[in-house]
Fold:
Amino acid sequence: MAPIDLSAAPFHLNDAAIAWVAATRDSLSPRDKLAQLFVLLARGTPEEVAAEVRSFKPGGITRIYSDDLDAEVGLFGTLHAGNTIPLLISADLEGSRMSLPFGTSVPNPLGLAAVDDVEATTAISTIMAREASAVGLNWSFTPVIDINAAWRSAIVGTRSYGSDIDKVERHAMAQIAALQANGVAATVKHWPGEGFDDRDQHLVTTVNPLTMPQWEASFGRLYRKAIADGVLSIMSAHIALPAFVRALDPDAGAEAYRPASLSRVLNEDLLRRELGFNGLIVSDATPMAGMGDWGPRDVVLPEVIISGCDVILFSDDANADLMRLVKAVADGRLSQDRVDEAVTRILALKAALGLHKEKPAPSMEAARGVVATDASRQLAQAVTARVPTLVKDVNKLLPLSLAKHKRVLVFSGGAVLPFAPQPLPLSLPDRLEKEGFAVTVHVPGMAIDPRDFDLVLYLLAEETLLTRSRIFLDWHKLTGSVFGAMHRYWHDLPTLMISFGYPYYLYDAPRVPAYINAYGSSEALQAAVVEAIMGRSAFAGTNPVDPFVGSEQGRY
Structure:
C-alpha cells in the first residue's frame, strides 16, 4: 500500500489517531475490510436497520429519516452501543424537502443563492449541522458545487447555488466551513462537475463537455478551492470528462465517456495527483443507471474501488456486492493494497471526526435542546423571508388585496417529490382563505366563467427530481384537458404564476404577466410568499439563475 500522510490535510490526524487507524485496519478480517467499503441505504425501521448493521458490518449508513425524533435518536444509541468500529452516519443535507423531517425548515441552495448573504448561508448550514450532530449524523453529501448552465437539467435544478461561479464558490465554501466546524464532514459533488448536460445520472452517464481550459476556469477552480479549504470528502459521480481523458489518449474512443465513478484517470490522475486531494472519495449511488450503463455489475462494482473511490455508496443487494469484491480480490483485479488504502481513508475520516474517542451516544434530552428550537426557527424564518424573488409584474398586480382580488381561481399540481407516490397539496390556498379570499381550486372538468373570479393563480412545485428527464409546465396535466391546456386567462383576469421549485417555467409561459420564484415548497416558504404577495414584506430575493433562459420573450 502506498503511504498516505494522515497528518496532512484534510485529516490532520495526530500520532494517537494515526495509530488507531492502523491498528483498527490491521485487526479486521479480509471480509470485514471489504464490508467497511460500503455505505448502505438505511430505509427500514430502527430495528431492521440495527439488525442489518450488526450482520453486514458496513463502514457507514445513509439514513432516510422518519419524523419520529425519539425513534431516530434511539436508533443511533443502539448503533453506537453495538459497534466496535464507529459508523459513518450520512445524509443529504440540502435544505427544503431534503432536510431532516424533525428539524428546522431551511431554504435549499438555490434559495440561499437568491438571498446571496454568506452570513445567512453560514447560519443556515450551522443549524443543519448542529441538529444533524445532535441525532448522531456525522457526514453530509453536501454542498453541491454543480453549475446551473444547462437550464433544462432536472437533477441540478434547485440543488446548486446557481449559475454564477463566484456565487457558487462563496456559498459552497461557507457551507463546508460551517458543517465541518460543527462535527459533520462535508462532501463536494458531483465530481468532475455537472450542469452542462441536461440529463440525469440516475438514468444515463452524463457528460461534462467543457474543454480543459474551460473546466479549469469553472469546476477546476471550485474543486481546488474546496480542497484548499479542507473539505474531507468528494463524491465521484457517473459523469464523464472526455477532454481530460483525450488529452492523455487522443484515441481513447469509448473510454473518453467512462463515468468518473469508474475512472482511475479522473480519480487518481486528475483529482488526487493534479488537484492534490488527500481525503476520502465516495462514489455516487451505485444502483444508478449512469453507472449500470457502463457494464454488468459483476464487472463495474469492483471497478468502483479499483478506480480510486474509497466508498461504495448504496447497494440493492449488499451481500451479493460483497461477494463481487471477494471474487475481484481472488482473481487479482482488486489488490489487497488498494483495499487497505481505501479502508485507511475511511477510518481516517472517522478519526478526523473524533469518532474513535470514547463519548456518549446522542441523548433525547440533548437532541431536544438543539433540534428545531425557537431560536433556530426564528433565524431560519428570517432568512426564508428573503428568498421569494419577484421576476416580473408587468401589469403591477402586486400586492394582492381583498378589495380587488377576493375571488381566486387556483391551478396547481401540488408539490411533486421524488419518493412520494402522489403530489402533496400546497397550503397556500388555505393560507389565502385565512386572509379572507374566496379560493376555488380547479379540478378537471370544471366549467370556468372568468366573470366568477378576480384573480387566477398558477402554483407549481417541482424541485429537483430524481429519474425525471425534464421538469416543464405540463399545461395538459395542470388543466386536465387538451382544450384547457390551450386556454390562457391572463387577458381576462389578473394572473400570477408562482414556482415553489424549478425556476424556469417562463420558458413555457413567457407571456404570464406576473411571476415569482420561491425555489422550494416548504411550509415556511409558502408562508413567506404569502407575506410578500400581500405586501407585508418585500421581495428581497435576486435571480441566482437567468429565469428568462436567454430569451427576451419572457420579459414582457
Q: What stands out?
A: The chain has two domains: 15-368, 385-555. The longest helix spans residues 118-134. The first strand starts at residue 38 and ends at 42. Residues 491 and 513 are 9 Å apart (CA to CA).
